[in-house]
Design brief:
This protein has 255 residues and is of the alpha+beta class. The protein is 58% helix and 18% strand. The protein is built from eight helices and seven strands. A five-stranded mixed β-sheet has the order 2-4-5-7-6, with helices on one face. A hairpin with a 3-residue loop joins β6 and β7. α1 runs antiparallel to α2, α2 packs parallel to α8 and α3 packs across α5. The structure holds adenosine-5'-diphosphate. The site of adenosine-5'-diphosphate (ADP) has 24 residues, from α5 and α8. It comes from Enterococcus saigonensis.
């Protein structure tokens, strides 16, 4: 009787090892697949503006430059391509920084000041869309955090609220802190339907690709938000209704 039991146990253990191994391989493959997808997406996103830049440069050199109006029109397009490249490169650097797990210093940030600084950099868009922006929170509130991760979170949420709001809408930014910091960005923009809400935090996922590119988006903003929030041990929540608007809420614990 004892021998049979031994054999059975060994078989069981072997099976278990096989199970554990195949589970690990699935994870490795998934990670590899994600990295391959990312690289191929990046290549595609980089190639598009570069191809356009080369095309317009060649056309200008071939003689189009002799017409001042055409030259201006082409240079405007080329400026847009170059800015898109710049935004992509900045976002890719930010993502790779977040992954490197660098020992960023923890600093005291005055939330109101950081928000004002970000809003100033979008003043042109806010003004041209005639958006009404409200800040609600203690103007003296400070929070100890890794600014290199915290800043991009807030910047990307505000940038999206501005980008996806029609003219004359209201954007509300509220924050408060106790044991955790809660920061909400609410817009009255286009909103996001339930199916897309699951996916918009993925790298390069965009609800409306053509429209998002037109607005200068890289498709990496919310991936940066999610990955940076996770590095800070926090979470990001989304409540959105198509045609009504969206609220992104970031909750961060003390570091
Ligand atoms: P993008 O550079 O395209 O804005 P993001 O990663 O920041 O990339 O966002 C992914 C997608 O999520 C956007 O393309 C857009 O479809 C949707 N989205 C993000 N923020 C908002 C918002 N505030 N309102 C409506 N849609 C949004």
């Amino acid at each position: 009787g004892e021998r049979v039991l031994d054999v059975d146990l060994r078989l069981f253990n072997e099976e278990r090892q096989v199970l554990v191994m195949s589970y690990d391989m699935t994870q490795v493959r998934q990670l590899e697949k994600m990295q391959q997808d990312f690289v191929s997406n990046v290549s595609h996103e980089l190639k598009t503006p570069v191809t356009s830049l080369i095309g317009f440069t060649e056309t200008l050199l071939d003689g189009a430059k002799d017409d001042p109006e055409t030259t201006t029109e082409f240079l405007r397009i080329m400026e847009k391509d170059a800015k898109r490249l710049q935004a992509l490169i900045q976002d890719i650097i930010q993502l790779s920084k977040g992954q490197q797990d660098l020992d960023y210093p923890i600093q005291d940030v005055t939330i109101a000041e950081l928000l004002k600084q970000i809003l100033e950099s979008y003043e042109a868009q806010i003004h041209s869309k005639n958006l009404n922006i409200t800040l609600t929170g203690d103007s003296a509130l400070t929070w100890s955090t890794k600014v290199e991760l915290f800043y991009p979170i807030v910047k990307n949420l505000i940038e999206n609220a501005i980008k996806y709001s029609p003219e004359k809408k209201k954007i509300t930014i509220t924050y408060h802190a106790a044991d955790t910091l809660t920061l909400c960005v609410t817009d009255q923009g286009v909103g996001i339907d339930l199916d897309d809400q699951q996916r918009i935090f993925e790298r390069f996922y965009r609800v409306d690709k053509a429209r998002a590119r037109q607005s200068g988006g890289t498709g990496l903003g919310l991936a940066i938000v999610k990955e940076s929030v996770e590095k800070l041990n926090g979470k990001v929540q989304l409540e959105s209704h198509p045609g009504v608007g969206s609220t992104f809420t970031v909750i961060l614990p003390k570091l």
